[in-house]
Every structure is written in structure tokens, then in C-alpha cells.
Amino acid sequence: LGNEALDKIAEPLMSGIYNAEADKQSILATFPRFRQLEQQHRSLIRGMIASRRQQASQAAPPSSKAPKIAMFMSLQGGTQELVDTLVSRLEGDLRLGTKVARIQRDTDGQYGVVTQQSEILRADAIILTSPAYIAANLLQEIAPTVSEKLSTIRYVSTGTISLAFKAEAIKRPLHGFGLVVPKSERRPINAITISSIKFDHRAPEGYVLLRVFFGGSRSPETMAFNDDQLLSVIRQELRTILGIESDPLFHRIYRWHQANPQYDVDHLKLIERMEADLPQGIMVTGSAFRGVGMPDCIYQSQQTVSKLLETIQQSEVVG
Ligand SMILES: Cc1cc2nc3c(=O)[nH]c(=O)nc-3n(C[C@H](O)[C@H](O)[C@H](O)COP(=O)(O)OP(=O)(O)OC[C@H]3O[C@@H](n4cnc5c(N)ncnc54)[C@H](O)[C@@H]3O)c2cc1C
Question: Is residue 104 predicted with pLDDT exceeding 90?
Fold first, then answer.
């Protein structure tokens, strides 16, 4: 579509979702739909027009009583609710807040999960859901080729700062959920989400909650700023972009070190080769592989569990 479309639309969106550099990113791993549309309709624009028409024809008529599904959803009390609910429903012998130090293979073929407290949990099968570089360390002893491939998956660090304001403090309000910043603008921030518009239950009437994204491949230097430096830089950005002069009612800073996996060109091939080398009974899943969004991670974990159960059933039949 040309450089301007890359600069003003594609790159900021790709970077906003994946915190990745557009020229290194694998389109097949991150936006496979665009490739499909282009191949199917011989042009991206034609493909997008066709899929809009299709969506419109499938949408419920305005008179329909079907509940409207919001474009973005979250949990009322925050994402921690998801973890708390999982913990309350999981059965079995749980070890919460326990770091795994090593994985070993015993002479009888069983695996031993060695915790940092030196407890050894014996298992026929293990699913690793840690970041890829941690899984690489844990698998070094029992699956060196898998470990080597996992260690090549790059990660970047990002941060968010949430700030609350009275609605009237925003002198240049936006119509939408927020904005993504083109790299060519060389700003120290990557995106702003208006959390109180994007999600329900985030701010009372008359107040606005903003979430500013920083760091990543774009502005890694901001990760090294201390809280005061960061707040001052972010407030300057909000002054310029949204015309906010007043102090925030409160703010919270979160830094996510090495938390964003990068799907570089040929990422999916790397994952396929890595999976082919996995020893019997060992599986890996999570955001490093086939999708970084939480729905992608949930889908991948369901697929992984099904695959593992299948291999266990097959080995029982053979045994
Ligand atoms: C700033 C930010 C904003 C995001 N916003 C969204 C969003 O709006 N919507 C969305 O869908 N996704 C969002 N994501 C992406 C999403 O949060 C992640 O992709 C998802 O949490 C990844 O899940 P995971 O289980 O693969 O990895 P993680 O959530 O990173 O979990 C890995 C776990 O492994 C544990 N671990 C590490 N080492 C060990 C060890 N040695 N032993 C035992 N355990 C270990 C860690 O403690 C951690 O709990 C966002 C991500 C970031 C960083």
C-alpha cells in the first residue's frame, strides 16, 4: 500500500499490538488474515471491502433482541480475577508461587520437576507455560535442541502508566478508544488507551482513566527512567497530544520486563521445528508461540492439553 500507509497505519498498529518492529515481524505469525485476504481477493483493499460486506450481511438486524457484544472486553475487577477463578477451580496438588529450578529425566523415564525449594515432583508429562527463555533454561538438560530454539525467541520490555483525570481536564478529547503513535514521530510513548471508554467499570461518570504505553522496541530507553522522570515525560506528552495541563488525580506505573515475545520473520517455522524436537510427554505453550492475546493463549493451551491427552492415550494403547 506504500510507505505512507505503512508509516501511519500498519506500523503503529503492529507495534501497538505486538510491540514489534514492522520490518522484522512475521506477517504469517501476527496478521495471517491480511495475507489470506490478499491471496483470495488479489488486493488487500478489495479483500477488506469484501469482508466488511460479509460482516454486514451476517450482522443481527437493528431490531434484533440479541445482546450486543462489545468490541473490547475485560473483567470487572481486572485480569487477576481470571487467575483467582482458575486457582479456585483447579483440583489436584497445587504449588502456587513456586519457582521451578530444573527439569530432570529419571532412569525410569519419568520426569522430575525440581522446585527452588529442592522438592522433586515426579510426572509422566509436563506442560511448560513460562516465557520461552525460561522454558529454554528448564529444558537445557533433557531437550537441548528444543532449548536452543526456544532461546532464539526475542523478548522486549514494555511498561504502562495509568493516570486518572476529571473529564474536563482533557482539552482536546479524542473520539475513539485511544491512539497509536507512528514511529516516524519519534515520541517517547507508543500508544494511549482511554481505558474508561474502551472497557466498562474503569472510571465513574465525569472521570477519565488513561493508559499510556512506553518502552518496547520503539523507546527502550524509557524503561530505564525512574518514576519521576517517567511521569514528567508522560505528562509532557499528554499536554502536547490531549491538552492536559492539570495534575493526575492518581497514577500507577507498571513495568513488564522481558514480557513481550517478538514474532520475527519465519517464527512459525521455528516453532514447528522446535515442536518436532520435543521429547515424549513434554509440551510448551503460551504467548511465545501462536498468538500473544489472552484469547490466543487460552486457545493454544486447550489445543496443547488435547494433544497431550491424545499422546498419553495412544501410548497407553501401545503399552
Ligand atoms: C503491558 C501489556 C498489556 C497487555 N494487554 C493485553 C490486552 O489488553 N489483551 C490481551 O489479550 N493481552 C494483552 N497482553 C498480552 C497478555 O497479557 C500476554 O500475552 C499473556 O499474559 C501471556 O500469557 P502466558 O501465560 O503465555 O505468559 P505469562 O502471563 O507471562 O505467564 C508466564 C508465567 O510463568 C511464570 N514463571 C516464570 N518463570 C517460572 C519458573 N521458573 N517456574 C515457575 N513459573 C515461572 C511467571 O511467573 C508467569 O506467571 C498484554 C501484555 C502486556 C505486557
Answer: yes
